[in-house]
Amino acid sequence: MVVLQAHFLLIPFLMSIMGAAQYLMQDAALLSYIDQRFLSLEKRLEKCNQDVLEYVDEFRDFSKTVLSRLAGLNTDKAEVQSEVENLLTRIDHAQRDIDYFGSVTDSNACVEVHEDLVKQQLLEEAEEKKRLKLMLNASCDHMLAGIRSLKIVKKTGGKHGSWMKDPGKKHTKIYLLSGSINNVILEFANIMTFMENNHTLKARRVLLPLPWEGTGHVIYQGFLFYHRYGSLNEIIKFNIQRRNVADQMLLPGAGRIPAYQLSPQTKIDLAVDEQGLWALHAEPETGGNIVITKINHVTMAVEHSWDTRCSSKDAEAAFMACNTLHVVYNSPSGGTSHIQCVYDVLDALNTYINPGLRFPKRQGSHSAIHYNPKEKQLFAWGDGSQIIYKLHTEQKV
């Protein structure tokens, strides 16, 4: 009985000893982990100290290099300053010699130099005029002497629009472009078809991917050239047969003010004559006077520009004929149109103000006037009417 009691007492004692041993093992493991962590940190701190020492040494070496370079720059600066002072002294001496030479030189030498400059300028102007004549073929030997008669072909459309033939093609097609903002061209087989009452049913409709602005567009060599709506000065070249945009260009200086005061819807007016494609516009820098630009219709490049003395004030339209600008003026309320300014690009001195060229008596105004060099006629749009003016020309003197 005593032995059994001793057994029961021994079991709790042994269990308490085993629990204490287990706790000692856990503490030993924790201490070992802490010791390893401290060793790792100490190694990293030691490496960090070594890196800092290396950085300090590198910085000291770099500082010494920079200081030595700066000292060298100070030396170079002193040498350069000395050279500059020497050069200034030499320039001062040279200026004195030049002043003396100018005081004793005969004034006739200056006159001779001035005359040489004038001669050189005259030669350059003659060469430029010769180049322009070659570029423009100089084949125009006639000038506008009067406007003989008018024929109202039809009345269709609103106040603004334009109509024309293609002077660069042999066909007799008529093209109608109604409105100052639109994207539809009506193409008619001939003028008889256009004059019929139901002409719109027989017209071929050509839609443009980009609408036009104003009434200054022209058709030449199968292409429509027009000012793109919404742009300042972009000119589009549109292939009518293929119905696609073939090219485009920006016309320098154009688009800021109307080409003609009485036709504010047109900022750029394109024209065709015996020499090809032209652009007419006004600029604030010229006081509102009209600027002429010759455009290569194939490459869409500017070939030359002229600032004219023809004002855009009270002007309603203009056209080019035989290298010459003809500006048409009217009254703001509408009256008899007349050509008041003529400018020949090959002879700027022959600018005529009020040459006495008046249109046949007809009260109203024009929104577009286009010259057809093949037929020597004007195709005009006046208050919704499509008009043809026959011209009288004379040989140039």
TrEMBL record:
This is OLFL1 protein. It comes from Mystacornis crossleyi. SMART domains: OLF. Keywords: Coiled coil, Disulfide bond, Secreted, Signal. Pfam families: OLF (PF02191). GO terms for cellular component: extracellular space. The keyword Disulfide bond applies. The lineage of its organism: Eukaryota, Metazoa, Chordata, Craniata, Vertebrata. Residues 70-97 form a coiled coil. GO terms for biological process: signal transduction. Residues 139-395 form the Olfactomedin-like domain. It is found in: Secreted. Residues 1-21 form the signal peptide. PROSITE patterns: OLF (PS51132). Disulfide bonds join 140-322. It comes from the Eukaryota.
